[in-house]
Amino acid sequence: MTDRERDDHQFSEGQGFDDPYEAFDLEPPEFEVDPDKVDPVDSRVVTDLLDRRNIPTDQIDTEQLLDVGLEYMQINRHEQAADTFERVAQYADDDRIEQEAWTNKGAAHAELEEWDAAIGAYKEALNIGGESEAQRASGDSSDATARSDHAATAETNLAYALWESGRSEQALEHAERAVEIDTRFAEGWYNRGFFLLERGLAEDAVEAFDNAIRLGFRNADILEEKARALEELGKYEEAEELADEVKEMREEAEEQLLE
């Protein structure tokens, strides 16, 4: 047993604390979170806030991170892809990269058939560098949309997501915008034709399909849809010729797959 300390030992008084002093706390710092916008049980919120607080934006290569998301898409890891694209959008200081990230995030959600999330992501993409709702309503077409590299893709993908969620009228509206933004966007013309045909506008659909084909978008799917439109117009001979071509194309594709 050791001897007890002497009762008269003089301890240092130190510098003391300010009055009032800031209490020491082991809890993490408080984050400014709007409970109306953030689900309090969303486990990703704290992680995202910590990222913004601790990782300098200039240390993140958003283009490289975007490539990581695309790699996830190629191996069908769509949930991870969606999270990666969201982080790209969060850190990007280039509008084009941010818009591409939101567009790809929408595509990842679409692969998962999460249509509401896909719609939200596409709308985020279109809010970057594009026309405002007021401009669209007034017919004031600024050149901002032309600078939006991925706007046409976002519009046509949004159209498809809206159609999948049962909002076919809105789908056609966005399909129209896609080809207004980029008249040489072949896939946009194909989607426009598809939605027109769904509305019973077969003649306009054929014209849209022809535009897509002239721009190099020629495959079994578009020829099949064009044949369907021709049947609606009573042009059965032309429709049958296309149907035969579609059959041949699919048989060739199956043979190549077996090889």
Structure, described:
The chain is mainly α and 259 residues long. The chain is 63% helix and 0% strand. It is built from 12 helices and no strands.
Brief sketch in words of this structure:
With 259 residues, this protein is an all-alpha fold.
Give the ordered list of helices and strands: HHHHHHHHHHHH
Ranges with pLDDT <50 over ≥5 residues?
A: 1-6, 132-147
The number of helical segments is: 12
- The structure class reads mainly alpha
Q: Report the β-strand fraction as a percent range.
A: under 5%
**Range of helix content:** 55-70%
Mean pLDDT: 79
What's the number of extended β-strand segments?
Answer: 0
Shape: globular
Biggest beta-sheet profile: none
Distance between the termini: 87 Å
Rg from alpha-carbon coordinates: 28 Å
Q: Which helices and strands occur, and which strands form pairs?
A:
Blueprint lengths: L43 H11 L7 H13 L3 H14 L3 H17 L3 H12 L6 H6 L12 H14 L3 H14 L4 H13 L3 H13 L5 H13 L3 H23 L1
Helix pairs in contact: 2-3, 2-4, 3-4, 4-5, 4-7, 5-7, 7-8, 7-9, 8-9, 9-10, 9-11, 10-11, 11-12
